[in-house]
Hints:
The complex is a heterodimer. By secondary structure, chain A is α+β, with helices and mostly antiparallel strands.
Amino acid sequence: MLVLPDDIKIFSVKEQCSVTAQVVRLTRSLAKTKIDGTWWKIPLSSNIKEEEDHHWVWRKSVGQHRNNLKWEAVAVQSSGGDVEGAILYRIDAKSQIAEGEGAVFVDLLATAPRNRPWVVSSPDYRGVGAVLLLVAVRQSYLLGLGGRVWLNSLPSERTRKFYRKQGFQVIFENDDGTIGYELPSNRAEQWLKNEGYLR
Amino acid sequence: MTWKDDDFVPVTGGANLADAYVRDLDSLRNVKVKSDLDCHIIRLLALHPQISIRFRNQDLTCLDDVTKRALLQDLNDSLNIKPLRTAKK
């Protein structure tokens, strides 16, 4: 069972060392105050309209599924209480690699704009997105879905590199140009072993 | 976790998942749960109907936490789910 809050490590760019943060459940209240109300109120080096998620309203997405156990929203909260990234996933997807098997589908995943190196000149933290993705893998494993996770992502070289490195496979290319990736069970278990979650 | 340049996960998502890609788990809609433990057991039973037949008479409202944890252990054993440890620091 995924027990939250859960202490994890993220890398502080300012302190140049890993620091403790917490994985917590993302409530509507937390989304309203620490994401929707704050994420875009920072000096940005690029046009925020170029960011795919600048129009997302997290409190609405979280609220919409709050009474539905198929969905789960989780955030990484730094020691000061700020939300450094968030993920919304559903547990009822069909695997596109393993026929007849289930998977977790990532509906929304984003790090705070202040943690994106292509948005700000010096991000606050690194590794937040990977921690969140790993939460989805952990949950998938604990729910007997083999750690399988799939998601749709922009077709950039940066995303391609990241997902390929973690063992995700391209499952299809969507009409809108986005690419579907799925993490197969064997690579999920390898990732969990590498991070010390699984023997 | 390693902290290399390609460690940043970009923004992902924002598109609806078509019905053809979703399993029928409507039993999980509008379910009120008392604890994370109850939530996890209910999800496991819904996701794995083959084991829910074996455990179908389990009414969580009648069980104490110790019994629920024993039930979860049985479910995990049935599904070959190993416990996850705390991550390495």
